[in-house]
Design a protein that fits this description.
heterodimer; A: alpha/beta; 7-stranded mixed β-barrel; 18% helix; globular; B: alpha/beta; 5-stranded parallel β-sheet; 4-stranded parallel β-sheet
């Protein structure tokens, strides 16, 4: 499927979908050394997000989240891609900096997340984030 | 994106590869926030000295390697180290060394060694109407609300990109029309106390839901430090970047002006019980619990606050098992050292910490007992981030508790 989107970080990725209804602050909520969600109040608490395609409504909280996401991308413990319900500059900056410093790409798109509602948790997908759209294929 | 000639040159690398690197990231960010152009800023405040992993060092050291220099006066937020009193920090050697390298990297870029979360109480205080790019939630809300300078909430990496280019995306609170009040809080008539301001801040943060709050009925504060406390806790419980207090803050001479003549989207009639409940949420400890430490100066203590503290330490005796920490900037520390205030504070049992804060470093590690503070911000974050039990109290309650060695309440203020 092709969805109109704002491509905050362009690129390709593949992974199992993780559909979150709740926002997460990567700072205090994500362990960059393991890729695990450590926010006890989050529905995905305890799960590893390394290599997953995370769909989340929006980011939350501290701007230090940029650093935590960038560090996770550096270490290879970050999600494979992040699809946001609304543009989130803090998440975008983390991925922009990691790509610029390490050449490691974690594509970030903002779109109407309802377009993905038909897909189930854990579905394997391949995606391409372009400037104005998100192309997604379920395996 | 519409760029000026200078901005185009920066992006193209004609003004050095460091500013080109910073401009590239800034333009990407500007796109993400929907800005169509950049504005010139007069100063920046950078929160880049806290170590969040190798990426923190790699980012600043790349700019240093490109021989970058900040384009506008740039203050630094607290670091992980007290460079003046390094023995206070209990952290592994590797972490200490990374923290020190981060601080030194920023200095190599030309940032000022201010190392404070209250840059508005240093000689770099901005003026009304100044366009600035600031990080650190309490500094942002103070600059916007109490001074009337204009900044959005900047953070990691982008604060330094703004400093390196002297630019910020033209959007949000940089634009006058976006600074008007949206939700109105009407307060019950109350005597002016330090704790009232913290209660109001905690409540307004919690209930504003992303809108700009206007507070009506706030009594005049004894000093701007009470507004500092209000903003700091509001930014903690609710990411508030700007509040208006009618008759007190500069963009709110009247309710009508604060709202820009519009009706509020919501009116919250605050009761005394609401305020008491907001304050109660800031304590996980109970009256009588054993106290381990009192922490003052989150945000950093001002000269006025030190004077108020010193006057209360006459004849004061601290319980032997209690530590009394006061966090401040090295600029304020120099002032109280020169005036002899510091030795009076030390004689009263206080340990003054500069450049950092007990809240972000490991100074409070291994404590057996409750930490008490007059900071709503610290009380809000410490249980989650430091894993300690806290009690919020006024300065007088903090000192009475430090003396008794347990949490003491002085009754309703």
């Amino acid at each position: 499927m092709i969805i109109a989107a704002l491509g905050l970080v362009e690129g390709d990725a593949a992974g199992a979908l993780a559909l979150w209804r709740a926002p997460l602050s990567f700072w205090g909520g994500y362990d960059s050394t393991t890729g695990r969600v450590i926010d006890r109040t989050h529905p995905a608490f305890g799960e590893t997000m390394a290599g997953r395609v995370v769909v989340m409504p929006l980011g939350r909280g501290s701007s230090s989240a940029s650093s935590v996401l960038a560090e996770a991308i550096r270490l290879g413990t970050a999600p494979a891609a992040i699809v946001l319900g609304a543009p989130d500059p803090i998440i975008a900056v983390g991925a922009i900096v990691a790509r610029r410093l390490y050449g490691k790409v974690c594509p970030i798109a903002a779109c109407d997340a309802a377009a993905l509602a038909g897909l189930g948790e854990g579905t394997m997908v391949r995606l391409t984030v372009a400037r104005d759209r998100l192309e997604l294929v379920a395996d | 994106m519409r760029l000026t000639k200078i901005e185009q040159e920066m992006a193209a690398g004609a003004r050095g590869s460091a500013s080109a690197f910073a401009m590239e990231i800034l333009l990407r960010y500007a796109e993400a926030v929907g800005a169509e152009e950049l504005i010139e800023i007069t100063q920046a405040h950078v929160d880049g000295c806290l170590y969040h992993g190798q990426v923190s060092l790699d980012f600043v050291e790349l700019l240093v390697g490109k021989e970058g220099r900040v384009a506008v006066p740039t203050t630094l937020n607290v670091g992980s180290m007290d460079l003046l009193h390094p023995h206070l920090i209990r952290a592994p050697a590797a972490e200490r060394s990374a923290g020190r390298r981060l601080m030194e990297g920023h200095l190599a870029l030309g940032c000022e060694p201010s190392f404070t979360c209250a840059p508005y109480q240093t000689r770099f205080r901005p003026r009304f109407g100044d366009q600035i790019a600031w990080a650190e939630s309490n500094a942002i809300v103070f600059a916007n609300s109490v001074i009337g300078a204009r900044t959005n909430r900047y953070g990691d990496f982008i604060d330094l990109c703004c400093a390196m280019t002297g630019r910020a995306p033209a959007c949000g609170l940089h634009i006058a029309a976006n600074r008007l009040g949206e939700v109105l809080f009407r307060l019950p008539s109350s005597p002016a106390t330090e704790s009232l301001f913290v209660a109001v801040g905690a409540l307004v943060g919690e209930k504003s839901a992303g809108r700009i709050p206007v507070i009506e009925g706030l009594p005049p504060p004894e000093s701007e430090d009470w507004l500092k406390a209000l903003g700091a806790v509001a930014a903690s419980t609710g990411s508030i970047a700007l509040f208006h207090a009618v008759g007190i803050t500069p963009e709110a001479p009247t309710l009508g002006e604060a709202m820009g003549g519009r009706a509020p989207s919501d009116v919250v009639d605050v009761t005394r019980a609401d305020l008491a409940a907001a304050l109660a949420k800031l304590s996980t400890a109970r009256e009588g619990d054993r106290l381990a430490a009192v922490s003052l100066g989150t945000p950093h203590f001002s000269l006025l606050e030190f004077e108020a503290l010193a006057s209360r330490l006459v004849g004061f005796r601290i319980a032997p098992h209690v530590e009394l920490y006061v966090n401040t900037s090295r600029e304020t520390l120099a002032a109280i050292t020169g005036s002899g205030l510091l030795s009076r504070l030390q004689a009263g049992g206080a340990t003054v910490v500069a450049d950092t804060c007990v809240y972000v470093t490991s100074i409070l590690a291994d404590l057996k007992g409750v930490v008490m503070t007059n900071s709503g911000k610290m009380a809000h974050y410490a249980p989650g981030n430091l894993g300690v039990d806290v009690a919020f109290g006024s300065l007088d309650e903090c000192l009475a508790s430090a003396s008794a060695g347990r949490v003491v309440r002085l009754g309703l203020e």
